[in-house]
Amino acid sequence: MTEFGRQLGIGPTDNTSDQRTPRKRLRLIPQQARASFVPVAPARAITRANEWDMTRVAPDRPRAEGVPIEVTGTVRNENGTPVRNGLIEIWSANHFGRYRHIEDQSGLRLDENFFGMGRVLTDDDGKYRFWTISPGAYLARPDIGRWRPKHIHLSITGGSARLITQMYFPDEPNNASDPMAILMGDAFERNIGRPYDVAGKDVDQGFGFDVTVGGKNATFFE
Amino acid sequence: MTKNARDNALLPTNEDTCGPYFPIYFQDDSLEDLTRVGPGIVADVAGTQILLRGRVLDRHGDLAHGVVMEFWQANAKGVYRTPATANDADIDPWFHGYGRLRADTGEYKFRTILPGGVGNRAPNITITIFSDGISRIVTQMFFADDPRNADDPLFSALGADEQTRLIARHDGRTANGAEVYCFDIVMAGPNETPFFDDLES
User: Fold this and answer.
1) The complex's ipTM?
2) Can you say how many angstroms the Cα of residue A39 is from the centroid of all Cα atoms in its chain?
3) Is B14 within 8 Å of A17 when comparing Cβ atoms?
4) Which of A51, B36, B84, B90 is paired with A106 by a 20 to 30 Å CA distance?
5) Which A positions 29-48 lie with beta carbon below 8 A of chain B?
C-alpha cells in the first residue's frame, strides 16, 4: 500500500492556489522507484552576453525607470556544495508593478526600457550576479486590497538541483500578508535579500541572496 | 547521511510559486521536442517517437493556463542520462531525457521517444509541474497496456482508480511519424492525479 507524505498548504486569499493545490496528501515514493524521481538537466549556456544587466534592454539603450539594484549570491545544496554552471532564469515586474508578459492584463504602466527577464550562469564557486530594477509591488486582489510585495522570481537549474523561488525585500509592508510568505512561516526570512553597500558601482542598492537548494534530489549524485 | 551531517546541513531556501508570468521568452524548442537537438542539426535519436499531448486541469475542470511542465525519462534502452551512467554503453548520445515547456493555455504537446524499462520499473515519464498558486508537484506517467505495469513497485502499490489516472493512452493516430499518446493531469479535486513527495521520500 502507498504511504503518504506532506499535505500541501493552500495560500490564504489566493484563488489560484485554491484551484490548483492537490487536496490529497502526497504519496511517498517506494525506495525502488526513488532514483527515477531525480531529473538531471543538461548544462545550458543560452544566456546572451547582456542579459545579466536587466536595467537596460540592450547595452546601447537608456536605463529603465526606478531604482537600479545589484543582486549577488552563491547557490549551494544542503551539504554546502556549490551548484556550478547552473542556469538562473530571472523575471520580475517593472518599477510600476507590471510584467512585460503578454498575459499581464493589469493595465499598469509599461516601461519601454525594461523587459524584466534575464538569464545568468553560476560560476565554478556557485556565485552569480545580475542587475535589475527594484520591482514595484502590485495589487493582486483589488476586491480585498491584498498586495503582492516586491519580489523577483528566480528559477535555478543545475544538474539534479532544481528550485523555483522568489527573493523578497526587507521591511516591506506587504510581506506579512503574502499568501506564500504565510505558508513559509518563520522560514520566510530565508527568502529576503540582505542589503549591502554598493559604493562605487553603477547601481543604487545591493542585495545578497544566497540560495540553498534543498531536498534529496539536489544531493543525489554527490 | 549521518545524523551529524544532517545537523550541519544548510537550511533550504523556500520553494515559491513561479506565478502566472513565467517568461515565454525562456522557451527552448530543443527541450519541447527531445527528438531534435537544435535547428538544422541532424540528430539520430534511437527509439519509437511519440507525441505526448493532453491538458492540465484545475479543481473545477478548467484549463490550468501558464503552468511550466518538466519531463524526465530514460532513453529507449532504459538508461537515464545521469552522472552515474556516464560510461554506460547504452547511453544514446542524441538523447538527454530532460524536457520543459510552458503550457500557455493549459494544453501541452511534448515530442520524445518511448522510454525503455529500467530494472524492474515499467516504462514511465516523471512530470514536474510549477504553477501559479503552488510551488511544485511531481507525478509519474505510465503507458497503457504495457505488461510491465503490473509488477512496477510504484504503480502496483496504487489503487485501481489511481492507476487509471497515471496511464497515457494511444489515441490511434500518428503525427509526423510519432505515435500519439494522451495524458491529462488534474491538479486538484475528485479526479485528482496522484502526486508524489520527493522531499520526504
Assistant:
1) 0.97
2) 20
3) no
4) A51
5) 29-30, 32-42, 44, 46
The three cell numbers locating residue B90 = 547504452
- Per-residue pLDDT of A132-146, as tens digits, reads 999 999 999 999 999
Distant-in-sequence, close-in-space partners of A105: CB < 8 Å, separation ≥ 6:
none
Which residues between 92 and 131 in chain B have a beta carbon less than 8 angstroms from any beta carbon of chain A? 96, 98, 104, 118-121, 124, 126, 128, 130-131
The residue assigned the cell 499581464 is A104
CA distance A67 to A117: 16
Element (H, E) at B167: strand B167-175
Which segments of chain A have a pLDDT < 50? none
Q: pLDDT at position A49, please?
A: 86
pLDDT recorded at residue B5: 57
Residue A12, burial from CB neighbour count under 10 angstroms (0-12, 13-18, 19+): middle
SS3 A110: coil
Give the per-residue pLDDT at B4. Answer: 54
